[in-house]
Design brief:
heterodimer; A: about 375 residues; alpha+beta; 4-stranded mixed β-sheet; elongated; B: mainly alpha; two-stranded antiparallel sheet; 6 strands
Chain lengths: ~375, ~625
């Protein structure tokens, strides 16, 4: 029934459209071809002008309305040290392209209106002007040169890898369908070796447990980092392409199976500082749950997020981890409370290559218990 | 200004038959093709036709079919994005198991099918509509007609070109109905997602059919391209020097060369993916653990595929936009009754863009793990493209300046094209600068950019071409009032759809997300997403207007009464209203001048077949 109605309404629309067309052709016949064309020119010339005004007004008004979402403005300010350079680059480009956008659109639609075909109108024979061509080749060339130099300056600085003598924290993020696996190096500051063939349910990263550098490695469920410390993220993938994306930190890099990539950045604002900034914006002063006025306000509940930005399958949109930036002391405190994955899950199991040593200890243990029990009995 | 304008006083009448008889060149075509076997019956005339005009129509109508399918797909996934809470259960009769209905009766699109729709939308629009439907249609229609040729250099290859496209279409269409769904790994088909059947449900049979279809498609493009190049180089009529060719021909010619150089690279990438899939080679795969299993692939690199793909993929966007540019140049010039401004600058900018298009591919890969140092070169070359593009824009605007513009659907779409190309081109300057791309890569800013600059703009060029040359194709006019409504609706609608996506992108919202609820950062735009969806539905409505107008006009449109309704100077309008096989009934016209003598020496226009007059100025 609904299908029939849909088909009928489609047919109805088609009939209306066709009739509309017929009416317009009749009008053309009655008024005469030339008169009609002049009227069309007047109307569409006027519409061009109208469109120009409305379009520019709409783009500027909507830009102002959404200005909080422009890079480097409003609540979405960058939370990393390099982010400012990118946001600045964006603003500079917006300045130049904005001018070109407005001027060319004014010229385009103003000329369309101004040079609409008129009664007895004549077009000028203007075929070329080499001096003009040179001028409007050089101007964009100069602007582009400026943008390229400025852009590459920022790019090479942002993308530079750490130098060995520098002090930095190395962490690792591994993409899989559909989650991010995180790894911290532990007290030794070194990530242990991995082999994808060793991956199993109990060893999600394929860590080689004979490599003792692995024994203190931590598998946290969220990224916690100290503010103001350089971080090098080692980015890898277990299966397909993923992309390590931290929108607030202006960080984005593909995770490629078999080819570790990296991104170096320095968080510049703690989560708490960022929350305080968000407090100033109305849209963050509403409860997170619209049905529950008692729930936390959005700025109070805010957390940095890690997302995936490279299509990786049906769960691509759900690969989230929270990111927390804290003061150094709090970070050290958090770090000291983390238990290494080896300690918590691997040690003493069949997967542990050092099991025989641990077994020796655990075999000794029951006797000690007995001793204790005997002592207690006496 | 270099050329002094003279007042136009006369609207001249030319007798084309007489001019061709007097100055034309007798190639005895019709003596050889008496009772032409190629036009003997219905099948050879309309189905397996070797006539370039019929093949053009076949490309156009197949392209239109795919455009509708592709647009409908986008509406379905836009509904999911704009109204995730609303039930899509009413789509169950069409989409079946891909609509998951919960206990409360609320139906949602299955995520894997959302990705399949996104992938198919991209594949269909880029390849089937904007490559075959645009370049295939108008290269076929206009190259022989505008250079004064009887047909393509090889009519048989031309026919094959269409039928390989048809075959590709059938295979792709069939893949939509697979039990496991069509391919769902994005139109770029990056491995390992595309190479491993276990990586997603569409990566099995769906990907197999996808790749088979596209290999057929590339065969079609190459057969067409070789033909276009050969025809332009060898079959130009007497007097049609390269510098007298209309800009349409220049753009089709350069497009075909780009296609010939880039599509084979795509096929090689596809073959290597197939080897990885079927023969366990490791071109693109390395150290993969998936579905609880460590695979034996070692030593390959997914980044290698991206290099091969984008070595094709970037030229491809110019394969799409150059024909549109050529047609817009022609349409703007004809309807403002002025020569195209800076003809040679326009040709040189096409050549510059074509050359640069081959050395910018890695700007799609700034964030893919390639050495950041390499990106420096690609940033430089990418932003250089802005220069010839700007030159083209300024020349189009200067073409309108001082004109006597005849407003109709064709010229309006030409003007709209320039607006879209400016808007979309300028955002390319953001994305081409790798530093800004760190944040904007794979966000909705990119979606906004490429939809405006190569999606909407190319469609506008195509619409300008269809409205302008419809009379040449069918001997009738499309209704122009409906055409103008179609234009204004589409102009406003397309901006309403894609402009807001810039704001989403600036806020960091990633593309290809089925739902934005998981992330606080991306969840601020429910209202904007609804607006975009509604705008998309309305804009689609205006396209229905076009489709009705198109098919109605084929049979019932206003008939052509004169053979040159626009007062254009190019050769296609010297053919009879009913243009038969061989295009000209007698001799082939010879060309005496360039294609843009509008408003010169007091004449509104001078066709290319009119010899230079005594005392004439500026003879090109």
């Amino acid at each position: 029934m609904t299908a029939l109605l849909a088909v009928l309404s489609l047919i109805l629309i088609a009939i209306i459209v066709v009739q509309l067309g017929k009416v317009s052709e009749l009008a053309r016949k009655i008024r005469g071809e030339e008169e009609m064309q002049l009227m069309v020119n007047r109307r569409n010339g006027a519409l061009s002008l109208l469109f120009l005004i409305v379009f520019l007004a709409a783009t500027i008004a909507s830009g102002l309305y959404y200005k909080n979402w422009f890079l480097g403005f409003g609540p979405h300010a960058s939370a990393s040290q390099h982010g400012g350079a990118l946001d600045n680059m964006f603003a500079v480009t917006l300045f130049f392209t904005g001018i070109v956008f407005v001027l060319t659109h004014i010229a385009l639609f103003y000329f369309a209106w101004r040079y609409q075909g008129r009664r007895g109108g004549k077009a000028e024979f203007l075929s070329h002007n080499n001096r003009l061509e040179v001028v409007w080749t050089l101007i964009p060339a100069v602007v582009m040169t400026f943008l390229v130099i400025k852009g590459l300056d920022a790019w090479n600085e942002v993308m530079a890898d750490v130098s060995p003598e520098e002090e930095y924290i190395e962490i690792e993020a591994t993409g899989m369908q559909f989650a991010w696996l995180l790894r911290y190096p532990g007290p030794d500051g070194k990530l242990g070796a991995r082999d994808y063939k060793k991956i199993s349910a109990s060893n999600p990263l394929g860590q080689d447990w004979t490599d003792t550098k692995n024994h203190d490695d931590i598998h946290p469920t969220e990224i916690v980092l100290p503010v103001g410390k350089k971080v090098r993220v080692r980015i890898t993938s277990r299966d397909v392409l993923h992309n390590f994306y931290l929108p607030h930190f202006r960080v984005k890099m593909d995770a490629v199976p078999g080819m570790p990539t990296y991104f170096v950045f320095t968080p510049s604002k703690t989560t708490e500082e960022y929350r305080q900034e968000l407090k100033n914006y109305d849209e963050y002063n509403v409860p997170i749950d619209p049905d529950d006025p008692e729930s936390l306000l959005k700025w109070e509940a805010f957390d940095y997020e890690l997302a995936c930005a490279e299509l990786c399958g049906k769960g691509h949109f759900s690969m989230k981890r929270l990111v927390k930036i804290v003061p150094e002391a709090e970070y050290q405190d958090w770090l000291s409370k983390q238990q290494s994955y080896y300690e918590s899950t691997i040690k003493g199991t069949d997967d542990d290559p050092f099991k025989s040593e641990t077994d020796a200890i655990s075999e000794a243990a029951p006797e000690e218990v007995e001793d204790l029990q005997e002592e207690a009995a006496e | 200004m270099a050329n002094v304008a003279t007042p136009v006083t006369t609207t001249p009448k030319y007798d084309e038959d007489l001019l061709i008889e007097e100055y034309g060149y007798d190639d005895h075509f019709h003596e050889h093709h008496e009772g032409d076997k190629y036009q003997a019956n219905f099948i050879t005339t309309y189905i397996f036709s070797q006539d370039h005009k019929i093949i053009a129509k076949q490309f156009l109508i197949t392209g239109m079919f795919w455009a509708i399918v592709g647009a409908l797909m986008s509406l379905v996934f836009r509904l999911q994005l704009g109204f995730p809470e609303e039930s899509l259960a009413w789509l169950k009769p069409v989409l079946g198991k891909w609509i998951v209905v919960n206990d409360a009766g609320v139906g949602t699109l299955a995520p894997e099918f959302y990705y399949a729709l996104v992938t198919m939308h991209g594949t269909i629009l880029v390849f089937f509509v904007l490559t075959a439907g645009l370049s295939g249609t108008f290269s076929n229609l206009l190259i022989p007609l505008q250079i004064g040729a009887r047909d393509m250099a090889s009519p048989f290859l031309n026919m094959l070109s269409y039928w390989f496209f048809f075959l590709a279409s059938v295979v792709m269409f069939f893949s939509l109905f697979l039990n496991t769904g069509p391919f769902a790994g994005g139109w770029t088909a990056y491995p390992p997602l595309s190479a491993l059947p276990q990586a997603s449900s569409g990566s099995g049979a769906g990907m197999t059919l996808w790749v088979v279809s596209l290999v057929f498609f590339v065969v079609s493009v190459l057969l067409g391209g070789i033909n276009y190049i050969t025809t332009v180089l060898n079959l130009r009529t007497k007097g049609m020097s390269m510098w007298r060719m209309p800009l349409t021909i220049w753009s089709f010619f350069i497009t075909a060369i780009i296609g010939l150089l880039s599509f084979p690279v795509l096929v090689s990438a596809f073959f290597l993916v197939v080897f990885d899939r079927e023969l366990n080679t490791s071109f693109f795969l390395n150290e993969i653990f998936i579905n609880n299993q460590a695979l034996d692939y070692a030593g390959g690199s997914p980044v290698l595929y991206q290099h091969l793909f984008w070595f094709f993929g970037h030229p491809e966007v110019y394969i799409i936009i150059l024909p549109a540019m050529g047609m817009v140049s022609e349409v703007l010039s004809v309807h403002s009754r002025k020569p195209i401004f800076g003809y040679k600058a326009m040709v040189f900018s096409i050549l510059a863009i074509a050359f640069l298009s081959f050395i910018v591919w890695a700007h799609h890969m700034f964030m893919s793990g390639v050495n950041p140092f390499i990106s420096n070169f690609f940033v430089v070359f990418t932003l250089i493209i802005a220069v010839p593009s700007a030159v083209k824009v300024f020349n189009w605007i200067a073409t309108l300046y001082g004109g006597n513009i005849r407003f109709n659907a064709a010229s309006l779409f030409g003007i709209g094209f320039v607006s879209m190309f400016i808007s979309g081109g300028l955002t390319g300057i953001f994305l081409g600068n790798s530093a800004i791309d760190i944040q904007l890569h794979d966000t909705y800013f990119v979606v906004a950019h490429f939809h405006i600059v190569m999606g909407v703009a190319a469609f506008f060029g195509m619409f300008a071409g269809i409205y302008n040359w419809f009379p040449k194709m069918y001997g009738r006019f499309m209704n122009d009032t409906l055409g103008k409504i179609h234009f204004w609706g589409t102009l406003v609608g397309a901006y309403a759809v894609f402009w807001p996506m810039h704001y989403l992108g600036m806020a960091g919202v990633p593309r290809r997300y089925y739902s934005f609820d998981n992330f606080e950062t991306f969840s601020h735009f429910a209202g904007l997403n609804q607006f975009i969806t509604i705008a998309a539905i309305v804009t689609f409505g205006f396209q229905i207007l076009f489709v009705i107008n198109f098919f109605y006009s084929i049979w019932y449109g206003k008939k052509m009464t004169t053979r040159n309704p626009w007062g254009a100077s190019t050769l296609e309008w010297t053919t009879p209203i009913k243009t038969g096989h061989g295009n000209w009934p007698g001799k082939v016209p010879t060309v005496q001048r360039w294609a843009y003598d509008y408003g010169k020496d007091g004449k509104e226009y001078i066709p290319q077949i009119v010899p230079a007059q005594e005392g004439e100025t500026n003879v090109h």
